[in-house]
Write a sequence for this structure.
């Protein structure tokens, strides 16, 4: 191909033009988005307690679906008014088929209680939230909601926005509140009133009349839509024309559902319009559309009402992409500068050109692989920034050497490629082999980082084509500059080359000569260094954590009061949380006006809460959240972690609080550090076990926010029907139905009003639902038309309902969770708990079972998969090298650089002050393929010199001198390509830096090992082979077995 520049240029043009054309079709997002192998079954059971939800709904669903194909785990949660069953599927299971099977199984259930609503079965989808438009001011709830609805309709009509949703507002509801006195006066029960409202609110087509003039449609249109219209419905009429309407027997309230959800922004009532992106919509375009809407409509808002942006993810996208692009540009300059020092300028230019060719060419395949432009994929490009020129450096340096020996450019290109083509191909193959295991990490972590191996392998394969096809054609027609600026630069480059040659002759060669002469001592020193490095990890000098936290600009404090706490008490606690936030900001020397862009508070739930019960009107008056939206990290003097610690200290004294947790991170590593799941058949014993374990967990230093998984639920009143009530013909069902009608309400009708589904309930007024007296004095109607107070009809048994009931694989469980402070090693704490605390607990409580859940479960699964992948990679690399060298021994020499590269990775973390993490280990797995390349090149060159007749010692010495420059260059370019990321101070990049540390420092240290220690190991292997040959001749004699040593040891 070196002779055909046209073909080479066409290939280059195809990669560049194809990548540019494909670029607009690539999705853009902050982090990779993926589908979870999860099917959700949501079943509303209005008014039911968690125990009733479990017994009436969950048990039936679990039994019906537990035997279906593809199910890995069943996780069920029963809360007030709703059941949620999360069905985790095995990897590779057809999600649509599983969804269909589960839906069919649920639809076949006929034992649900009458009040249970239609189950909703769906695949779990992660919504792609971009930003929230906050509307806040001194308005009524209805006025705020109307403004929010108008904003929602306007936004969704814009070209760049497809999906918008309201939050922080209560759903509409029409309530007909009928006093008990009126039901007695008119002889109407609540169920009768609901039935007549339902019958009078119809909208039904009646067909058509065929007349001579055409067909005329017939329709009954009595659908009521407003409270006033419902008040006009006639309930009773007499012969004299007297009518009793709904408004005569009760009060019709056209308002909101009886929930306690409310939102505040900067202390004022607020409504939120959450904006999401769908398909190929980009965060930047969606955010810009929201900002354009604000600019256009802000002036028309009522006085005292303002717009605000909350949690704008496009800013995060811009900041993180800019950060990575800045590091990439700086790394590219460092790579070009490094190449320019060692190679002639034109050669350095053509070698460097392989970077944009490979990068842009890879864009051609990103949509095919369903890979987006995000923080992780851009980091993958940075990883390859130095690696992508490795093969080009080897090929270019070989051609450069041929030209220095006096060959013509075309002949030098052909000879250079022939010299190194085989080792280059095997080197790229081993690199791809090292990254391949990262494709098969299971779970969320595997899906999150899947893009790294995809991009690295794609870029490396394209770079292989570029280095063996395009680069030689360009160098074959490139001549050194003898005039102009390039000649001046080449002159200085030649001076550097002379110094380089002097260094090789007078520093490197003597060092290798000493190493070769004292090869056993050198090997012992290397092994001792490796053992001491492993000791740094084992001794805790370099700690290991699963995943560094990704700091967010939003810090949340989530408060849980005792279940049943009044909304007034929770509001007061919310104000106390806001006051403690101001104290924390003052302590950090950052007044809110300069460090805070917004402050959002909610009562009645958590914004990050995925509990669907909130969508069905379940009360949550005991929950409150205060979130603060900080200015970017570069514009403040403290981190989100600093604020979290100060806020926790300032707000720790909220009276009666069951828990107060703080969150400031997002992405992998943001979950609870300690998560232990206990199960037992007896709920009381399970509660005791969870409490004891939580107490023991609390004894560890640095462990915070401990939750035993149990919360005291609402007081529950159970009824036991008395014999005298039975004598009147009453049954338990009669009493239960009438109590439910009075206190929860009877749903009369459900209809669509605009975009909203509005339910109409008939119930008692709030004033008749506030005390035990109201309950006991409730009149129960008998079948004969008589009445009896509930207090006389039934005995009331007091108790407490569970806040929620969790089940895993058809067993009740409870989770004991906790987090740790910065500087506390969660893995060490967790290991000690498993070793010391859990066995004692299991011994004390027969029948108790446990398992690790949450982040620690993900860590163990991911680390186990990574370990298996590492073994697979090593075996694959060994196999490739064995085929290449036709030997079993020489691959071991080549692969000896891998453990020594680990030394550099560990010391890199130690020097830079980082803990080892899952990302670090991913870097070590990738490192195994990178460091092998240079070792492969060195041993291959030594073998070539051996074939030419040189001795083993001479061959390895000459190989070290001949390959010193390309080995040093490939390592330096890899390190300098990653160097800007390694020294990056932004907190947004901290979770990526450990992988860069492992690769960068590992490659740098492995270079020294390859150039100095590998020659010693090469000769040690030859010594072993010689001794074995002498032993063979001693045992069998020079004529034994044809005088040949078996090839199995080669």
């Amino acid at each position: 191909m070196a002779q055909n520049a046209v073909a080479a240029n066409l290939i280059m043009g195809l990669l560049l033009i194809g990548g540019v054309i494909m670029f607009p079709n690539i999705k853009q997002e902050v982090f990779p988005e993926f589908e979870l192998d999860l099917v959700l079954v949501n079943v509303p059971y209005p008014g039911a307690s968690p125990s009733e939800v479990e017994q009436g709904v969950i048990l039936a669903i679990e039994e019906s679906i537990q035997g279906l194909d593809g199910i890995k785990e069943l996780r069920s949660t029963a809360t007030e008014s709703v059941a949620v069953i999360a069905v985790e599927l095995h990897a590779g299971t057809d999600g649509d088929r599983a969804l269909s099977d589960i839906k069919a199984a649920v639809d076949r259930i006929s034992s649900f209680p009458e009040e249970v609503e239609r189950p909703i079965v769906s695949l779990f989808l992660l919504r792609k939230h971009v930003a929230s438009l906050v509307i806040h001011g001194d308005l009524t709830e209805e006025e705020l909601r109307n403004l929010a609805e108008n904003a929602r309709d306007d936004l969704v009509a814009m070209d760049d926005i497809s999906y918008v949703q309201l939050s922080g507002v209560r759903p509409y509801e029409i309530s007909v509140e009928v006093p008990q006195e009126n039901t007695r006066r008119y002889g109407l029960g609540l169920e009768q009133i609901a039935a007549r409202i339902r019958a009078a609110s119809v909208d039904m087509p009646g067909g058509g009349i065929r007349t001579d003039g055409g067909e005329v449609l017939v329709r009954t249109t009595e659908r009521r839509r407003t409270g006033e219209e419902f008040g006009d419905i006639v309930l009773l009429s007499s012969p004299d024309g007297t009518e009793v309407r709904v408004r005569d027997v009760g009060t019709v309230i056209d308002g909101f559902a009886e929930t306690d959800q409310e939102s505040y922004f900067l202390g004022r009532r607020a409504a939120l319009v959450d904006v999401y992106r769908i398909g190929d919509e980009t965060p930047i375009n969606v955010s810009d559309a929201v900002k354009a809407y604000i600019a256009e409509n802000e002036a028309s808002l009522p006085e005292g009402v303002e717009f605000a942006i909350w949690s704008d993810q496009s800013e995060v996208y811009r900041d993180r992409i800019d950060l990575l692009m800045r590091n990439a540009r700086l790394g590219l300059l460092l790579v070009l500068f490094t190449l320019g020092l060692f190679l002639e300028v034109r050669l350095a230019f053509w070698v460097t050109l392989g970077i944009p060719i490979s990068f842009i060419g890879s864009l051609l395949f990103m949509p095919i692989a369903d890979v987006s432009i995000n923080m992780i994929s851009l980091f993958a490009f940075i990883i390859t920034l130095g690696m992508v020129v490795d093969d080009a450096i080897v090929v270019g340096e070989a051609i450069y050497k041929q030209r220095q020996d006096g060959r013509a450019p075309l002949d030098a290109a052909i000879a250079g490629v022939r010299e190194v083509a085989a080792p280059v191909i095997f080197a790229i193959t081993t690199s791809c082999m090292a990254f391949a295991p990262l494709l098969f990490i299971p779970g969320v972590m595997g899906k999150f980082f899947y893009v790294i191996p995809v991009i690295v392998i794609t870029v490396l394969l394209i770079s292989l084509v570029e280095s063996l096809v395009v680069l030689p054609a360009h160098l074959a027609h490139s001549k050194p500059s003898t005039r102009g600026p390039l000649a001046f630069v080449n002159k200085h480059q030649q001076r550097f080359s002379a110094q380089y040659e002097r260094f090789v002759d007078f520093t490197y060669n003597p060092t290798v000569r000493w190493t070769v002469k004292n090869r056993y001592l050198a090997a012992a020193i290397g092994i001792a260094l490796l053992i001491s490095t492993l000791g740094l990890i084992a001794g805790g000098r370099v700690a290991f954590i699963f995943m560094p936290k990704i700091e967010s600009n939003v810090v949340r404090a989530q408060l849980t009061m005792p279940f049943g706490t009044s909304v007034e008490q929770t509001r007061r606690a919310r104000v106390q949380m806001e006051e403690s936030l101001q104290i924390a900001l003052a302590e950090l020397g950052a007044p809110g006006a300069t460090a805070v862009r917004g402050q959002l508070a909610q009562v009645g739930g958590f914004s990050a809460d995925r509990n669907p019960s909130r969508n069905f009107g379940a009360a949550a008056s005991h929950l409150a959240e205060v979130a603060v939206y900080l200015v970017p990290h570069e514009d403040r003097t403290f981190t989100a972690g600093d604020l979290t610690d100060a806020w926790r200290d300032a707000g720790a004294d909220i009276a009666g609080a069951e828990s107060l947790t703080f969150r400031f991170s997002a992405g992998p590593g943001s979950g609870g550090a300690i998560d232990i799941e206990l199960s037992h058949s007896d709920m009381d014993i399970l509660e005791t076990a969870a409490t004891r374990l939580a107490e023991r967990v609390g004894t560890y230093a640095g462990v915070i926010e401990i939750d035993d998984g149990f919360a005291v639920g609402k007081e529950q009143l159970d009824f036991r029907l008395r014999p005298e009530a039975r004598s009147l013909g009453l049954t338990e069902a009669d009493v239960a139905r009438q109590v439910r009608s009075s206190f929860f309400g009877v749903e009369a009708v459900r209809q669509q009003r605009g975009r909203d589904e509005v339910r109409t309930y008939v119930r008692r007024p709030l004033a008749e639902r506030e005390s035990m007296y109201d309950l006991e004095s409730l009149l129960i109607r008998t079948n004969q038309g008589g009445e009896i107070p509930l207090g006389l009809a039934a005995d009331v048994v007091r108790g407490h309902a569970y806040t929620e009931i969790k089940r895993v694989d058809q067993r009740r469980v409870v989770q004991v969770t906790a987090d740790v402070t910065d500087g506390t090693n969660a893995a060490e704490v967790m290991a000690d708990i498993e070793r010391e605390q859990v066995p004692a607990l299991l011994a004390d409580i027969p029948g108790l079972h446990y398992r690790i859940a949450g982040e620690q479960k993900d860590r163990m699964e991911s680390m186990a998969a990574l370990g298996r992948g590492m073994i697979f990679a090593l075996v694959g690399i060994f196999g490739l090298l064995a085929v290449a060298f036709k030997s079993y021994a020489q691959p071991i020499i080549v692969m000896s650089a891998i453990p020594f590269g680990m030394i550099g990775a560990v010391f890199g973390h130690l020097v830079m002050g980082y803990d080892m993490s899952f990302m670090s280990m991913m870097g070590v797995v990738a490192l195994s393929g990178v460091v092998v390349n240079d070792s492969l090149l060195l041993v291959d060159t030594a073998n070539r010199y051996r074939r030419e007749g040189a001795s083993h010692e001479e061959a390895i010495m000459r190989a070290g001198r001949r390959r010193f420059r390309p080995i040093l260059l490939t390592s330096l370019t890899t390190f300098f390509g990653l160097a800007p990321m390694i020294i990056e101070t932004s907190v947004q990049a901290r979770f990526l830096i450990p992988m860069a540390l492992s690769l960068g420092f590992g490659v740098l240290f492995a270079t020294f090992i390859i150039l100095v220690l590998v020659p010693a190991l090469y000769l040690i292997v030859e010594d072993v082979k010689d001794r074995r040959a002498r032993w063979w001749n001693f045992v069998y004699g020079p004529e034994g077995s044809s005088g040949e040593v078996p090839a199995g040891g080669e």
